[in-house]
Write a structure and sequence with these properties.
241 residues, alpha/beta, Alpha/beta knot, Trp Operon Repressor, Chain A, five-stranded parallel β-sheet, two-stranded antiparallel sheet, 9 strands, binds S-adenosyl-L-homocysteine
Length: 241
Amino acid sequence: MTPWTATVLTLFPEMFPGPLGHSLAGKGLTGGLWHLQICDIRDHGEGRHRSVDDTPAGGGPGMVIRPDVMAAALDAAAGPDDRRPRLLMSARGRPLTQARVRDIASGPGAIIVCGRFEGVDERVIEARGLEEVSIGDFVLSGGEPAAIVLMDAVVRLIPGVMGSAASGDWESFEHGLLEHPHYTRPRVWEDREIPDVLLSGDHGRIERWRREEAKRLTSERRPDIFEGWKDRNMVPPVRKV
Ligand code: SAH
C-alpha cells in the first residue's frame, strides 16, 4: 500500500520539506513512512515570464493567483480518481482541529495548496472543490508555513513516526482537555520542587492528580474547550450502529 502522501502546490518549492525534513517527521520521510511531492505552480505560469498572478478585479492592493494557472497546476498534480482531500491553506478557512488532523491522517494523503499575495481567484476554489483550512486567526504572508504546520500535525499520527506508541495518549485535545504539567530531574530546581504526588509511586494517585490538573488548566485557559468537555461527559456515549 502506498504510504500517506502529501502533494503540495507552492510558488516556493525550496521551502519544503523544511522543518519536516528533521527529527521524527524527517526520519519518517526518509524511511518511507510518508511521502511528500512538491509541485511548482510557476511551471504552469503564463508566457515567457511564467506569470501566475494578476491585479484584483474591482481594484485594490496586491495580486491574485490566476484560476487558469492554479487549475492547470492542480490538474497536473492530481487526476480525477485521486481521492485525497484538496485543501487550500487560507486565513478565512475553517480552523484546523485535532479531530480534522486525525481524519486527514487516516486517509490516503492530502493535496495542499499554498496561497500567496492576496490569495487565489474564487472560481478555481469552487471549480476544483478546494476546502479552505486556517491554522488560526492571524494572517501569514503565505500558505507554506501553514501547510508545514498541518503536515507536522498529521505525520506524527502516522503509525511508526513517533517512537513510543504510548505517546499521544494524554496529549492536549486528545481527551478534550489540555495536557497536565510535566516535570523531570532535578527534583529541586531554583527552590522549586516537583509535586510530591509524582514521586509517590502511587499510579492511581498520579493519574487522578494529572486529570485534576488538566481540568484546572483547561477551565482557566480555555473555558470554551472545558464547557464542551463537561457537556460531552454528561451525555451517555453514542452507540455505533
Ligand atoms: N487576503 C487574505 C490573506 C492572504 S495571505 C485574507 O485576508 O484572508 C497569503 C496566503 O497566506 C493565503 O492565500 C493563505 O494561503 C496563507 N495564509 C495566511 N493566513 C493563513 C492562516 N491563518 N491559515 C492558513 N493559511 C494562511
